[in-house]
Amino acid sequence: MQLLGCSQRLAAGVQAEKLKGTACRTQGRAAVALRPRAAASVEVSGRDIREDAHNRANEPGSDAFNARYVPFKAVEDGSASRGSEEQYSLDEVLYRSNDGGLLDVHHDMDALRHFDAAYWKKLFDGRNATTSWPYGSGVWSKKEWVLPEISSDDIVSMFEGNSNLFWAERFGHQLGMSDLWVKQCGNSHTGSFKDLGMTVLVSQVNRLRKIKPDSVQAVGCASTGDTSAALSAYCAAAGIPSIVFLPADKISLAQLVQPIANGALVLSIDTDFDGCMKLIQEVTRSSPIYLANSMNSLRLEGQKTAAIEILQQFNWQVPDWLIIPGGNLGNIYAFYKGFKMCKDLGLVDRLPRLVCAQAQNANPLYLAYKNGYDTFAPVKAQTTFASAIQIGDPVSIDRAVLALRETDGIVEEASEEELMDAAARADLTGMFNCPHTGVALAALTKLRERGVIAPSDRTVVVSTAHGLKFAQSKVAYHSQEIEGIGSRYANPPVQVKENFGSVMDAIRTKFNQL
Ligand SMILES: Cc1ncc(COP(=O)(O)O)c(C=O)c1O
Ligand SMILES: N[C@@H](CCOP(=O)(O)O)C(=O)O
Questions:
Q1: Residue of the CA atom closest to atom 14 of ligand 1
Q2: What percent of the chain has pLDDT over 90?
Q3: Nearest bound ligand to CA 274?
Q4: How close is the Cα of 14 to the center of ligand 2, in Å?
Q5: What is the chain's percent helix, strand, coil content, to nearest 5?
Q6: What is the secondary structure of 15-49 as a DSSP string?
Q7: Residue 94 CB neighbour total at 10 angstroms
Q8: 52-106 per-position pLDDT tens digit
Q9: Atom from ligand 2 closest to the CA of residue 225
Q10: Is residue 388 lining ligand 1, measured as CB closer than 6 Å?
């Protein structure tokens, strides 16, 4: 069978020749030559930004930028900013502090403060969505605030970030709101916000494998489907082996095929996410397999850039509210950290109030919030359509509580019916939401109904994954085949016979004025 027409074959042939030529020309060159050619460099105050940063870094009183691991506890009690006694280089392989608590990446804020807010805004804005390596990435455009010491040559990036922030005008009006926005973190390379953190973690692994060749032989994670997709894609891009621990039969088909396609070792384990999380911690403690979950604080350095990006997109105006679905609870802390850095460095003057939205079937943070965070008890997470947040024992509980306390935050929950209805209702205004975004939209609806969020409050809902990853549950909703759920907003397809009358009948039934 002839698949290509003559002109197409000609074009394909020319293209193949061009590629062959490129391959020959690049043979034998240093690896760095294979990086994309940088576009014209961005200028700040009429000077090249590299030169500008270099000159400023060498001005009297300034220090080189650097970041260290410190115990998270030192962030909680404020001692990190005074210089924590316990601190480690980011080139060490470790995930917990001496006392077994979480770690945090602490930046040398005095060095960053050497540059004023106007400088940082102009630098970040100037790099926005360019093609210069690696600054065209929404994450690496903030490199000095992320991993300041990594060489650009070690960075593994797919120019992630720079995701759309759009005005949800029609859905907002339905809720009596004039300033509702959706940040599309799921419109990304692997279809979720995890790309933001994974580019940072895999870049650091790439560096470690060069400077300490035996330290990391593979990278592994436990996952409900999105971390695994991002890990396997970034590892494949860098030629690093990856291993993913998935709870058997608890993730969507689209999520399952992602690590398979990217060549990861996919382990389907007969447990839930919390069980997988325990296992991966055990494995990474006792082998040169590096842990890629958000327990590893490197991940949050990338994820925090979404908060900075939102401020940038609003021309450095702070929204009143930010609503985000929570599972393992790294992301809410990452957003807090991004906003907080902007405030501490004078780019903005306040923080938004954060809302963490949980599925009622996996709601340990909500239960803790209800008792004033006096006690926290893990739960056995039940099945939820928001399968990526079916997590009962979140690793970052302490980080989330800090973020919520510091922002006068709220935790809300959504039942299965509420989350599916909210996603479907918003879809009818042009979105295509995943169930986790449905949880956030349901929380928004409740907070509006109770008058907590006011009509003119600027509110951002973080959409965390692409709806296409969850087509199965959306089809089930619209087919009205989910037991116990009314599918109020279902729009099932109509079967019609192949004749004019039947087609017109179907159209008239739907739009009775025609
Ligand atoms: C699509 C999606 N939304 C939300 C979350 C929650 O993020 P976090 O675990 O950082 O709370 C996850 C992962 O847990 C996710 O995959
Ligand atoms: N939803 C996550 C759960 C694990 O979260 P992590 O951010 O700690 O890696 C997933 O997709 O695996």
A1: 327
A2: 85
A3: 2
A4: 44
A5: 45, 15, 40
A6: HHHHHHHHHHHHTTS-GGGGSPPPPSPPEETTEEH
A7: 13
A8: 544 544 544 445 899 999 999 999 999 998 887 899 999 999 999 999 999 999 9
A9: 11
A10: yes
Q: Is 327 in the pocket of ligand 1 (CB under 6 A)?
A: yes
What is the rounded distance in angstroms from the CA atom of residue 445 to the CA atom of residue 451? Answer: 10
Q: Is 469 in the pocket of ligand 1 (CB under 6 A)?
A: no
C-alpha 326 to ligand 2 mean position (Å): 10
326 lines ligand 1 (CB under 6 A): yes
- Nearest protein Cα to ligand 1, atom 9: 328
For residues 56 and 114, give the distance between their C-alpha atoms in angstroms, rounded to a whole number: 8
From the CA of 386, how far away is ligand 1's center (Å)? Answer: 9
- pLDDT value at 8 more than 60: no
Helix (H) / strand (E) element for 198: namely helix 194-211
Tokens 């996919």, located at residue: 266
CA distances to 114, 207, 408 from 402, in Å: 27, 31, 10
The per-residue pLDDT of the chain, averaged, comes to 90
pTM of the model: 0.90
230 lines ligand 1 (CB under 6 A): no
ipTM for this prediction:
0.99
pLDDT band at 155 (very low <50, low <70, confident <90, very high): very high
The candidate with the shortest Cα–Cα distance to 384, out of 272, 227, 465, 277, is 272
What pLDDT does 131 receive?
87
Task: Write down the pLDDT at residue 9.
Answer: 31
User: Which atom of ligand 1 lies at the shortest distance from residue 436's CA?
Assistant: 3
What are 300-352's pLDDT values in tens digits? 999 999 999 999 999 999 999 999 999 999 999 999 999 999 999 999 999 99
Q: How confident is the model over 197-240, as pLDDT tens digits?
A: 999 999 999 999 999 999 999 999 999 999 999 999 999 999 99
Q: Any idea which ligand is nearest the CA of 297?
A: 2
Residues with CB under 6 A from ligand 2: 221, 223-228, 293-294, 327-328, 330, 388
Distance 329 CA to ligand 2 centre (A): 9
User: Residue ranges of the alpha helices (H) in 314-464?
Assistant: 330-344, 364-370, 397-406, 416-427, 435-449
Ligand 1 centroid distance, CA of 94 (Å): 23
Report yes or no: 268 and 259 within 8 Å, Cβ to Cβ. no
**Site of tokens 């973080």:** 462
pLDDT of residue 32: 32
pLDDT band at 467, cuts 50/70/90? very high
Cα 465 to averaged position of ligand 1 atoms, centre (Å): 8
